[in-house]
């Protein structure tokens, strides 16, 4: 064995890229994703129309919604999409800004990669720039009184002014503030926590006008009472019992068989079941409820006893809806009727009512006293409109929640980014070593947000940016930015264009940390063993052939390869042609004849002879 024999560690099928090539590929992929949604930033943003695989259409300018629908292959681009989703989950807004900023951070880093700067040096400079940027945010942030509805309304309106619902004035902002204020829990020190996913339900009902939307101080769900003709559909000040157990005869853990020797035994079994259900209902009725709601089943016999006592009942309700009812009316969900107590009965609801909207029945438990859960009822012309309104409402509620949790404001219209950029440029002179230049580049990258706003307004970007940089150069005009609608350079305080501190801080953190992560990748290993991926000839999609059941016969494919290669070899070995034909294009018909011969041999299954073949005349 030779001493210098190569050692194979990776499989032959494994594709590997490393070094500068990986950095450039990752940066280009990130820039491509940023360019896709760059035009959706600001109040003059464009909309994107997305067609999904099932033929559905989504029209939106929400960055996260757009990137979620796009099918992307490059791993760095997928990482950018994950970035937007994380931003949406954390603070609910700034999904477009974070992608644009991360793309710009990587774009300015490309020049340093070309100059052979080590990625760790660039990342160190970016991390230092992030720390200084957050310090600037703390310096220029302004506290807001969460009880001042006008200030809250202005902030939420300016945050969703870029959305589809911005044309409807204060409607969505009012809904968001009412919902988050209703479901908020006091944390002390003037801060409140709001769990939007758990305790604020958005119910979309097509029909009517968007202006008919409202916040219900209680819960609404798509259910009717179990016996419509016998049970009341409207009760004022109801006593409500919530159950997480079936009100029916108990079933065995496994399959149970009973052997009856006499006909009377069957009657005994029926009486036992009836007695059991009667006792369950008696334990419930002992507390004189007006409404019983259970997440499980309700037998016909139980319905009979409850309706006879004048009690309305709803069965098979979702656990999430049951939890909201408990928060709204003060009830406690009980697992066994035997454990019911007077304190478990909900008495804070003002009205129980079942209404028919369109073709379906909806239950309303509303007018609750001090509810900790609520429902936002959205009305609109179509499902597509309602879906977009819901996305805008979720963003608005997230902004309102962020203010309640951390009541600080920052100037909008790119003013914050310009202030941070100017402060970092001034501080870059005190940064020593090779980190100075990446630090200064990071300062320039923050200007991507106001520059994009100016582009989307159709303004002269160079002139606008020069004017803004001049106003921010001395660090005194921290509130000067671009009015995204008119394109004017104005004071954000006067126009009441705000950004939430939580959203802006999270945007900076997420963008810079993601840029550093992608810069530190210097090796990509791709498994090349995906032999079943091909093109669907009908749709043109790149799919797994196993899933689509698109097959070829092994014999046909093997014979095709053999015949084609042997035919090519035969034609390449011909170096002389003798013929009485006088046409100038002599070789063409002869080659065609040879191919015909090849095809005939392929069909017959014969192999080519090893001896030279005489070309037919």
UniProtKB/TrEMBL annotation:
The keyword Cytoplasm applies. It is found in: Cytoplasm. The lineage of its organism: Eukaryota, Viridiplantae, Streptophyta, Embryophyta, Tracheophyta. PANTHER family: CHAPERONIN. Belongs to the TCP-1 chaperonin family. GO terms for molecular function: ATP binding; ATP hydrolysis activity; ATP-dependent protein folding chaperone; unfolded protein binding. It comes from the Eukaryota. SUPFAM superfamilies: GroEL apical domain-like, GroEL equatorial domain-like, GroEL-intermediate domain like. Molecular chaperone; assists the folding of proteins upon ATP hydrolysis. Known to play a role, in vitro, in the folding of actin and tubulin. GO terms for cellular component: chaperonin-containing T-complex. The keyword Nucleotide-binding applies. Signal peptide: none annotated. InterPro entries: Chap_CCT_gamma (IPR012719), Chaperone_TCP-1 (IPR017998), Chaperonin_TCP-1_CS (IPR002194), Cpn60/GroEL/TCP-1 (IPR002423), GroEL-like_apical_dom_sf (IPR027409), GROEL-like_equatorial_sf (IPR027413), TCP-1-like_intermed_sf (IPR027410), TCP-1_chaperonin (IPR053374). NCBIfam families: chap_CCT_gamma, thermosome_alpha, thermosome_beta. This is T-complex protein 1 subunit gamma. Keywords: ATP-binding, Chaperone, Cytoplasm, Nucleotide-binding.
């Amino acid at each position: 064995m030779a001493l210098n024999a190569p050692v194979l560690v990776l499989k032959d099928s494994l594709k590997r890229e490393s070094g500068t090539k990986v950095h450039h590929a990752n940066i280009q992929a990130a820039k491509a994703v940023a360019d896709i949604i760059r035009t959706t930033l600001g109040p003059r943003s464009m909309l994107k129309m997305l067609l999904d695989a099932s033929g559905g259409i989504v029209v939106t300018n929400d960055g996260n919604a757009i990137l979620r629908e796009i099918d992307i292959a490059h791993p760095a681009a997928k990482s950018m999409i994950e970035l937007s989703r994380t931003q949406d989950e954390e603070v609910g807004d700034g999904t477009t800004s974070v992608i644009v900023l991360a793309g710009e951070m990587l774009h300015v880093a490309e020049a340093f990669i070309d100059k052979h700067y080590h990625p760790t040096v660039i990342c160190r400079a970016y991390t230092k720039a992030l720390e200084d940027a957050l310090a600037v945010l703390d310096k220029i942030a302004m506290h807001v009184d969460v009880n001042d509805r006008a200030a809250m309304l202005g902030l939420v309106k300016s945050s969703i002014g870029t959305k589809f619902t911005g044309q409807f004035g204060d409607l969505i902002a009012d809904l968001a503030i009412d919902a988050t204020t209703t479901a908020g829990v006091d944390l002390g020190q003037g801060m409140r926590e709001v769990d939007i996913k758990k305790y604020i339900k958005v119910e979309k009902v097509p029909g009517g006008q968007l202006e008919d939307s409202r916040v219900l101080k209680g819960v609404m769900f798509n259910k009717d009472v179990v016996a419509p003709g016998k049970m009341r559909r409207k009760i004022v000040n109801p006593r409500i019992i919530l159950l997480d157990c079936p009100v029916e005869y108990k079933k065995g853990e496994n399959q149970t068989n009973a052997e009856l020797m006499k006909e009377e035994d069957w009657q005994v079994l029926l009486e036992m079941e009836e007695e059991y259900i009667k006792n369950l209902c008696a334990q419930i009725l002992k507390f004189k409820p007006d409404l019983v709601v259970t997440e499980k089943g309700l037998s016909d016999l139980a319905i009979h006893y409850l309706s006879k006592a004048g009690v309305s009942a709803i069965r098979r309700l979702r656990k999430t809806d049951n939890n909201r009812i408990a928060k709204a009316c003060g009830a406690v969900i009980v697992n066994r009727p035997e454990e019911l107590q007077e304190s478990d009965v909900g008495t804070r609801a003002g009205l129980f009512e079942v209404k028919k909207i369109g073709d379906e029945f909806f239950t309303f438990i509303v007018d609750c006293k001090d509810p900790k859960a609520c429902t936002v009822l959205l009305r609109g012309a179509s499902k597509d409109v309602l879906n977009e309104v819901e996305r805008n409402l979720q963003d608005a509620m997230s902004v309102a929640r962020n203010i309640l949790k951390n009541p600080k404001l920052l100037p909008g219209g790119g003013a914050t980014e310009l202030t941070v950029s100017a402060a970092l440029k001034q501080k870059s002179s005190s940064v020593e070593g090779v980190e100075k230049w990446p630090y200064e580049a990071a300062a320039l990258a923050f200007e991507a947000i106001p520059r994009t706003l100016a582009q989307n307004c159709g303004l002269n970007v160079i002139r606008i940016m020069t004017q803004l940089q001049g106003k921010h150069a001395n660090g005194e005009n921290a509130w000067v930015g671009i009015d995204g609608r008119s394109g004017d350079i104005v004071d954000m305080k006067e126009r009441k264009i705000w950004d939430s501190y939580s959203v802006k801080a999270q945007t900076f953190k997420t963008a810079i940390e993601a840029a550093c992560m992608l810069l530190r990748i210097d090796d990509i290993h791709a498994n090349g063993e995906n032999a079943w991926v091909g093109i669907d000839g009908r749709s043109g999609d790149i799919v797994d052939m196993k899933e689509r059941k698109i097959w070829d016969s092994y014999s046909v494919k093997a014979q095709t390869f053999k015949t084609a290669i042997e035919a090519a070899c035969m034609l390449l070995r011909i170096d002389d042609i003798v013929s009485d034909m006088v046409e100038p294009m002599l070789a063409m018909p002869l080659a065609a004849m040879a191919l015909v011969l090849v095809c005939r041999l392929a069909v017959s299954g014969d192999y080519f002879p090893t001896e030279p073949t005489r070309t037919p005349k």
